[in-house]
Amino acid sequence: MGQPSKVGRPRPRGVDRWKVVAGIAVLAMVALAACGGGGDRAASGTAHKGSGGTLRIAMSAGNIPFPATPPNEGYEGYRFVGNNIYDGLTRLNVEQAKEIATPHPALATSWRISPDKLTWTFTLREGVTFHDGTPFDADAVLFQFERVKNPGFELYADVDAPRYATYFRYFRTWKKIDDHTVALTTTQPYAWVLWDLAHIYFPSPTAVRKYGNDNYNAHASGTGPFRMTKYVDGEVMELSANEKYWRGRPKLDKIVLYPQPEAAARMSALQSAEVDWAEVPSPDALDQLKGDGFRIYLGKYPHGIMPRFNMFRPPFKGNLKLRQALNYALDREGTAALINNVGYPAKQYVYQGHPDYDSSFPGYTYDPAKAKRLLAEAGYRPGELKLTMGYTTGGSGNMFPEPMMQKLQADFKAVGVDVELKPMEWNTLITVGLEGLDKQQWSDIDILWASPAAGMTPNGYSTTFLCERPGGLPNAAGMCNPDVDRNYLAAASSFDQKQSQADLRAMMDAALKDADFLFWMHDLNLRVMSPKVHGYVQPKSWWVDFTKIWVEE
């Protein structure tokens, strides 16, 4: 493997990095750009071949995601690596932009549910092969379930298993019926099996056996639209088109991924034509990028910044008024202006218009007078309360933590609360979420930054909302609201979609009234691309369909 060129070093462009500009004008501009962003003609109107090319991407991740099952680096790992190298039994239909993506057939062509709603029988797609040429079949499905669910299995993946715990949580047994049929039985009637299976990837059993779990990442082999042809940890990953992909060969010839945790570095790489796609570049540069001919995409999708209170101990444990006070202390409009309106204020966990949005609750607005009153009722005089907030300095889907945190610190100071900011690397923050704020090494954190895919999938709520995590562990932030749990579990066991959504709205209502989160910002999924990139669809999802994209060369 050769060494990649170093991309993304910031170059001075005469831009004031966090300059606040006219947000309304920018939003109008980007909306106009997005309307024509996926066309197959250049500005001159000349038709193009409609396929091919190499797409170079500057990711917000601090490292190339491991091509494990699952990948790391949060949902950015799923978006760029997981969904390109691998398939699940189901997939989310992210090739469209009209509605929140839902599960569709993938490696499974069909399924049926037993009368007791416990056993799901899947018919597998025939003729599918892994990138190493070996067949995908029922044995491959069972191999991955054993590898993640059975600690006694010879190739049990002790690193991957905890990170996959959410999606394997409700599976009790797995059985081969024949070479192309498997039966999966759940611990209880559970309606979101298809959502879980969209996240569960299947590696080549042959590759895992040959290289072992420790060395598998260097030889990753799935059934997905792209195969890994180059991987230098910390520097670059190259993905080449799978000529035999079961959905048809992707239009792109290659995808090249570069980790660039600094927003200014991603912008510089784009401007210098070292990459064709930049995740969340510096928001103050949108006018300049637009003027340079780049395509700017924004749109509502299920993701936000929703920090979590440490409810294992005081001051937040059992102190509703304090949690409410801090929610009313946030100047969300000011935060949005600071980041050039590439995000917008959150009154609750999901955005207005989302099917789980609780229209019966007005949500939280900026009301410093009310915040001061609630703070006093919570038992604190101005200047008496001092808090520590842990946050990530960058990484997958975290928007712009540094200026946002400085704004939060100022907002809380204005109502008489001092906040010490504790920066940490993205994967460290993920580790905190896995280990929990009750652990000694994290117990000094009062508030923890969180960037959930808020409402992208219904099963996703379980990782932050429920009293108990998989394995019997307590909620990582100590949240335990019986009303939340009851409504979530009712929704998860209901096979009636309308009833399930009503239960989820009731869950939201309970979490809102209990101020279980710091409801702060919704993201608008900013990404900027070269005009040479065609076929891109901006979905209402974290994930993207790369099979329809091509690059003019």
UniProtKB/TrEMBL annotation:
GO terms for biological process: peptide transport. GO terms for molecular function: peptide transmembrane transporter activity. Residues 102-459 form the Solute-binding protein family domain. Keywords: Membrane, Transmembrane, Transmembrane helix. GO terms for cellular component: ATP-binding cassette (ABC) transporter complex; periplasmic space. The chain crosses the membrane at residues 20-39. It holds the Pfam family SBP_bac_5. Coiled coil: none annotated. This is Peptide/nickel transport system substrate-binding protein. It comes from Actinopolymorpha pittospori.
